[in-house]
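Standup notes
- DV: blocked on the single-chain target, sequence here:
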Amino acid sequence: MLGFYDYTVWLTYASLVSAGAGILFSLQGNGHPYVGIFFLMISGLCDAFDGRVARSKKDRTEMEKKFGVQIDSLADLVAFGVLPICVGSAMLRVYETIPSVASKLRINCNGLILNILTIAIMLFFLLAALIRLAYFNVTEEERQKKESGGRKYYEGLPVTSSAIIFPLILTIQYIQPADITPLYFLGLLLVGIAFISKFKVPKPGLREILIMIGIGALDFLILLFFMVLK
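- DV (later): unblocked, structure below
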């Protein structure tokens, strides 16, 4: 068979499968955005350790290394680029934000203007994630030609931050009664801009990764508690 299937790529494959499940659950007729957000957090957990697992195998061939880089970026685009906008689409359907907001702002044509705006934001976010991942791959390849070891800083906000930011936004829905769908789309816009902005972000070490996992786990439990309670 084509491809590689040893343990070094299992977490990346799992991240993609989780993202695919989240997309399908978000977009189906009776899907719910909170189900999609659970799968987003699972993808984030897989991504947090896939690189460390891959580097644990010392005898990887150059082809295995390049394959790992390619599938990691492709999986990240689906998990942290496509899935968040599918969650946003599910929010629009479940909470019917467009008709209610359109009514308040007296926008005709069944919220056509807001519909176009939300679609534009989602497409911008997806494009920004794609550009961010491609730019990182190119610059990382050039960096490795000049210096050895891992990088200390990222340029622009890493796309994997989606796994922390958007679950936290959705948690707000259970803290207060107002519909937070507009806030979610504002988050998509700002995070998309951060993906392609030129600023340095320190690369997290194991300690920082474990802290973020702890935050994600707490958020996961809070969302699960409120969903079961509701």
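- Follow-up: The longest strand covers residues 153-155.
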